[in-house]
Sequence to fold (438 residues):
Amino acid sequence: MLKKATQHMAEELPFLKKASLLIAVSGGLDSVVLTHLLHRLDYNIAIAHCNFNLRGIESDLDEKFVLELGSSLGKTTHLTSFQTTEIAAKNKNSIQLSARNLRYDWFQQLLLNHRYDYVLTAHHLDDNLETFLINFSRGTGLDGLLGIPVINENIVRPLLPFSRDEIKQFAISEKITWREDQSNASNKYLRNKIRHQIVPVLKEINPNLLDSFLKTNRFLKQSQNLIDENIQAIKEGLWFEDSNGIIKIDIVKLKQSKNPKAILYQLLKDYQFSAWEDIYHLLDAQSGKKVFSKSHQLLKDRMFLLLSKKTLSSKSDAIFKIDENTEQIDAPISLKFTKVTALGLKSKEQIYIDKDLLSFPLHLRKWQKGDVFFPSGMKGKKKLSDYFKDEKFSLLEKDQTWILCANNEIVWIVGKRQDERFIAESKSKNILQILFNQ
Fold:
């Protein structure tokens, strides 16, 4: 295995040789073997261990074992402890999900604080097969059948080509000791059921199951690469991004394809959406319908789908007060208030107000039905809804527009148009410059 690992690392992961690496070590067989392997191959490694306090004294013994392992190899060892059960209950998550989130959040903090380049985990070929079967049993697309990626941003898994048997034989031959987690023998969790009840039957049917899975995995990745190449070509004809970072997807052009749903999935799969049926229904929904992910929103606006990041406050009734002596705010948007003695260059992002005409506190809010203002450079008032219509604002642009008000009178459609009533003149004695940083 040492020879095979050396070749694999040199050919597939050459960037790790000069990097500073943090290995996630539970104390079990796989992570301990990975640590010994990379130590033997003279990689620059450190160790990280999480005590989740889920197995009583056994968890503490795991921690002690890992600390002694790091000491014996002369490696820096980072330890942390979590009251996982309590945290899971508080966040209303499963214990497994909570442990995973706690672990990876802590790893990323270690990378940042200690300038490690990558976190290495000891997932192997059997883990990958189990993940494939779990996703298959739940129903998944091609992405789910690809299993565990070797590289996922700064997470790297060097042992993915190696089976559990190979790893164990190496440990035995090298007289490497490790800790056994008795919970792995339990069928309480789905992964363990598949490991102990499903995989043995499949191996009985096909003794070369892991080799067959490797071939299948390779073919699936080739198919995904082919899809990715074609999606880029398709994307150029129906995917447009404006200066505000809003992405417009042309529904008419999308529907002209033979597989609009499949294309839409490939376009949006990296934006953390999960309600795919709701997304597909947007193609024929009324304007104004939305679907949210953890990080983004997708809005139907006439013949387009508009994709954007979630705003800090998505509530239309959110109001933020700005006191008279405020110099700058950074949320929900960035505005800088500066008292000046003369007028400067006006723009959509920078206006000059006669402060004596204002009533404080100012209020920053989203537009409301019935809003009117007096557009700069024009006589008379105008409904804000008519202004949006004349300027061809999309529904998303209207939702993302902030209004600066004094005593509920519009002072500025921020970044768009100033109100004539509050504009500072050269003779104004108290001039306030307001700068919008997009």
